[in-house]
Amino acid sequence: GESVGLHLPTLSVQEGDNSIINCAYSNSASDYFIWYKQESGKGPQFIIDIRSNMDKRQGQRVTVLLNKTVKHLSLQIAATQPGDSAVYFCAENRGGSQGNLIFGKGTKLSVKP
Amino acid sequence: ETGVTQTPRHLVMGMTNKKSLKCEQHLGHNAMYWYKQSAKKPLELMFVYNFKEQTENNSVPSRFSPECPNSSHLFLHLHTLQPEDSALYLCASSQGSSGKVDTQYFGPGTRLTVL
C-alpha cells in the first residue's frame, strides 16, 4: 500500500481557527516533502516544502513540521479562511531519480463560516 | 495561474478513437511530467521528461504515448483506451536538475472520459 497517508480523510474547521493536517510516511530515506492544495476543478497548487535536514518551515499563514523520529509531517494553517477549503496532499521524495514523488490520498478541508 | 496550461480541459472519447492531450509551460523549466489522478486514489506518476529526454516510464500501458518536442511542450497521445482510463490527467513542470528533486508546478488538468 501507499507509504504516504493521512490520518483523517476529512477535516472541518471554523473560520478563523487554526487547521492541522497530518501525514505519515514510512520510508526513512525520504529527503524531501511537499504540501499541495487542490481546489475543485484545478490542478494541485504548491504550498510549502521542507527538506529532511529541517524540522520546521514557515510560510505565509502556513507552517510545515517534520518529525523524522516518528516519520510524521504536518501542515498548520493559521486563521483558516473559506478560501482554504480544498483537498490537501502531502508528497515525499524517496531519493534517487528526478520526479519520484509519492503522493498521499489527500485530506479534504472544509471551512465553516 | 501557475504558468502551466493544458488543453483540452475536458475530453470525451470512444475506445477506438485517437486523441492527444497538450501541455505547455511558460516557466522556463526543463522537466515535465504526466500524472493520472483517479477518484479516491493518489496521484500516479506516468512519465518524466528532463531536458526533452524521457527519464521515467512508470509501467504505463503502451496505449499512452508521450511526446516532448521541446522543453516547453509535452503531449500525451491516446489510442484504444479503456473506460478505466477515465481520469484527470495532470501535467507538471519543474526546473529540472540532474538527480535532484525540485518543486513541481501543475497545470489545471484534462478531465478525460472514455466511453
Task: Characterize this entry briefly.
The complex is a heterodimer of chains A (113) and B (115). Chain A has strands at 10-14, 19-24, 32-38, 45-51, 56-58, 62-67, 72-77, 86-93, 101-103, 107-112.
> Kindly, what is the distance between the CA atoms of the first and last residues of chain B, rounded to a whole number of angstroms?
31 Å
**H-E order of chain A:** EEEEEEEEEE
Number of helical stretches of at least 4 residues of chain B: 0
Q: Count all strands of chain B and give the number.
A: 11
As residue ranges, the low-confidence spans of chain B are none
Oligomer: heterodimer
Number of strands of chain A: 10
Instruction: Identify the most extensive interface between protein chains.
Output: A-B, 27 and 30 residues
**Any idea what the shape of chain A is?**
globular
Q: Please identify the structural class of chain A as seen in this structure.
A: mainly beta
